[in-house]
Records
---
Amino acid sequence: MRYIFKFPDIGEGLDEGTIAEWYVEKGQAVEMGESLVKMETDKVVTDIPSPKTGMIANIFGKVGETIHVGDPLVEFDIQGIDGEEAITEAAKPDFEPVEEGAGVVGTLEVADNSAFLPATEEMNTETLTKSSPGTEKHKSLATPVARVMAKELNVDINDITGTGPVGRVMKNDIQKHYQQRHKHFEAKSGQDTTPKAEARVEIQALSQIRKAIARNMIQSKHNAAHMTVFDEIEVSELIRIRNKYKEIFSRQEIKLSYLPFVLKATALALKEHPTLNSEMNLEGGQLILKKYYNIGIAVDTDEGLLVPVIHDVDLLSIKELAQKVNQIANKSRNRELGMDDMKDGTFTITNFGSIGGQFAVPVINYPQAGILGVGRMVQKPVVKDNAIVPGTMLPLSLSVDHRIVDGGEVSRFLNKIMEYLNDPVSLLMG
């Protein structure tokens, strides 16, 4: 029997992905759970496993092409049926039965006639004419990144002569072609096309991650009523304890920063102030209080801001949190995050202090209720025991959804975090 496996909904609001690499080909036998294809999405690069054991009858989409959730991905010959019987089976309009996927949120459906995609070419709006016999274009070699850029700029990549190895089309080739095309259009319309004018503008295609960030920021600002509270805490004792255990942990090849202490303090404070660990269902008239404490960490990467999640922070020791922080940072920068690393966050921490900032107005990771910003430590004179002495201050910026949390609760929550940070030994024992 023939089945069409469609690109599944892999969660986190991702509705499309770019094919980075095929692991299988037509005629190849695969086992359930075996990786079929590597997909690059807005947030992660992930492998899609096979939901069935069978033979690959067809694959849909080429490397570099962007497909949407629900588009056909792989056709399976599940029971070895072929010939007229397979064609008859594939043509049935009935989409039942639906079978469970293996490790991916998705379905297997009996194929109808629309499940088979015709051969396509990357064409811009100026070249959407029917080709006559013998005039088919050559297929240009290009990286997935270059193909995505060409699609974003509405450029037919097959019109471009590549300057890379074996004629591969590079990003610079696409940018040059795009600029030349626009220079031609401007010249026809009588606009200034002098080199001086062109040098004042550089056009870059938005990456998938940057587009996702833009959508998320707009959604957050549109749906959440932002309120931000600022405070700072003297952390000399935290510095002393961290320096002590930093040396101990380093012998076990574990890097200890201040972030694990902030994570632990935040999780414990969330348990005492559950509205900060919730989300609002306004249409349903509900406030969803979450009894698990999964904290996302905003990580600055070359591709943009990613927010991987550490699960069950309240149950982890400072040592375990240090290990998790190091693992997640490395996976983020190497684009090795999986979907499990990005799901089910209940609160977020952003550490802009690591790049030099003190205070900021963090944007809530909607639909979460709050986000804590951690700034750069600075030395200031402080009063202790009626004397002015040098101290080290840690700035904190807490943004909340004011629809969910009132000002008094925000202050009490922030004070509780600072109370825990003032007693770092208790965090080590927790």
Note: Residues 83-135 have pLDDT under 50 and may be disordered.
---
Amino acid sequence: MSIPLNPKPNGHIVLGITGGIAAYKACELVRLLRKQAFSVQVVMTESAQRFVGKASFQALSGRPVFTDAWDPSIDNQMPHIELSREASFILIAPATADFLSRLVQGRSDDLLTSLCLAREIPLAVAPAMNRQMWQNPATQANIELLRSREVAVWGPGQGDQACGEIGDGRMLEPDELVLRLNQFLQAKCESDATKKRIPLRGLLANRKVVITAGPTFEPIDPVRGITNRSSGQMGFALAHAAIQAGAQVTLIAGPVSLPTPQACQRIDVTTGLEMQAAVESALEDSSPDSIFIGVAAVADWRPDTLSGQKLKKEFNADLSKIVWVENPDILARVAARPAEKRPFTVGFAAETGSQQELEDLLPGKAARKGVDLLVGNLVHESLGGREASLTVLDATNIGQDNPLLIRLQSQSKQWQAEELIQLIANRLIAQA
């Protein structure tokens, strides 16, 4: 099973383990969670230790395992409070019928039940028990009560059981639980972001916004050419977000097949020179109140001449004789316009390497381009239209010891576009 990356890097999870045979699967669960960049704090019941020892989980998690409500290693000797304070989620896997019953009753007679009772973070349980125990009306009533209290119930699955029977009651496999955890946290992040987001309406009221999107294609002959890879999705998402914010948007798009956002003037181009001409025309009457967002992946080079006929390989066409000419740097040209005609300028930089290498590279690139904001992303994360994190550099901080870098987590491109429009609006307000 393919497991998406942890949407909340460095998230801290409390993993509760109760006394069922499926406790052995929790070892693999800890391993997968660590692989997903979660830190894991294991809490075990007394009966769980009869199935798997503390030492196994301590080695896999890299943390001490807690079992005792009176553990003296916690500074204030309140582990049921302290252990959940730094965590973002509690997962009980396996969750036995006995534990589910005690959870419903609000019992706090051991560390794990006390921790669940005192929590302020989401809780999920992964039931694991004999099929008759799962089907018992008492268990089903407990499950319904937990769900009504917004406890997530993941599983159980169906299959062979330790008792030799077949049916419902198996704990979900560790990879399935990690997948569900990631999906839950992703949805929560998006929901929280939506709740916190300031409405876009009016933020860019009546401002002219010009956006480039997609790739360019530089023909070599009637059938061949070179290009930069780009889906165009981010540029189109930004156009939609800017329209929501009240802007008058011109979208200059390379060869992509995406629907035009409503109330948007769209200009389709193919080559870098065509895109440059379209940008200059759209910004002819620009001012410092205007905005230019250069998202397009413009091909850096083009052939000096276009062959009118297909270059046939059977005639030993020598492609090394093609003379390559550098395409204009549209972004730098816009940023270098006279002050009275220079729009607020935002650039995008797709780079290879690590996140740290990206962050080290952005200040120098922003200075060379002369932009106000530079948005960086890693190529291996974003190709193919996939969700990827974005790193935004505020160019006003270039030269300082700690230039301002804003990390936009991996979310939908529309979500990131709306965040970027808010950042742009905030900068314009600050410099007014």
Note: The first helix runs from residue 25 to 35.
---
Amino acid sequence: MKLLQTGDLHLGKSLHETSLVEDQKVFLDQLDSILEKGAYAALIIAGDIYDRTVPPAEAVELFSDFLVSMRRKHPDTELFMVPGNHDSAQRLSYADGILGTQGIHIVCNPEKSFEPIITAKGSERLAVFLLPFLSPGSLGTVPTEPVSAAEKQPDRKDGMFEFDFSHEETEPVEPTKPAAQRLLSSQADLAAEAARRFDAVLDSPEYRTLPSLLVAHLFTLAGVQSESERIFLGTSEKVSPALFSKFSYTALGHLHKCQKITDRMYYAGSPLAYAFDEAGTEKCFLEIEIDCLDPAFPVSVRKIPVQPLRPLSRLEGTFEEFYQGTAYAPYSSHYLEITLTDSELIANPMNLLKPKFPYLLSLKQGLYETGPASTRDSGSTGAADALFDEKRDPVTDFIRFEEELYGTADSDRVELFRELLSECADEA
């Protein structure tokens, strides 16, 4: 069975305040063309369909047009997708019941992730599991370790000797009290609970001999990040790939670089470079082939390169080399980040170079990039400057972070954050 994998479309995203809608239409058209040529059983989109929980109208229209075109041109190709951490699961789940009858499958409620969808192609059958991005509490609670009165009895061993206390009168053992419940909050804990439930299904007689596919949006321990992703602190948000080893193949989203995690687990990465640290990196779709008739369910993976509307490049040189020279002329149609290496500060270089490089989005003067200003583009004005010059309110920033991550700010966490700030101020 042949499948096509992508993810992290981030429809509606801009790059340095430049709209990428046309660029995104180009890779969706390429996706459509590949589907037309390949006789694929299914298309997989592993989360982050949109860049924001409330996407712009043009992004919604773009994806809607793609779905209509796909159903018209490829009626036998099913679509499996999950919401990522940038998406609104509630919005994506709109009319999911009707869409499911049209071969467009989306699971937004994690509790439904453990009910596989069976897809078939000829004599081949595949069980598909869809796991959306797991937010705190999305899989409920689990019991903490219960402690009974029996566990509180004194140790019956003293060194090498074991004593018989059977003749002693002891207090009757109390029954085990109901276990306290613990909310699952970290990605690691949530993924472990999901894996436990998946294993129970996969070990059942109904699915034990059937190949299985997992589509998930998460960050594995072995994954390589890029600047365009939301970075989590610590390792509690990273997931062990071993948790999902029972699946015949796992299609992952969240990390933007195409990468192999195991022989049966891959990130397709984003179809576009969304940050300049991705300049020059390979962007692709993945063709997955699973032999569903072989008891070992062997898997092969092939990369299909994406041809961007405009490549993304990082360049370095003197101002005169860019302004007067011709060596960089081939980059005039690229999205550019330029770092000037001049020993003297150049006045207003962005405006001077824009006529020659119309897609110049970021310009830095390397020798003068010190301290907080190192991330500020030379020659930039307006909102970008204000971002660095204004006095930032930590509470406002925390609320924005909560809204970006979860769609809304939790009032209890905001209040706790206020209290922590107040305590830090008192200690200072």
Note: Residues 324 and 356 are 10 Å apart (CA to CA).
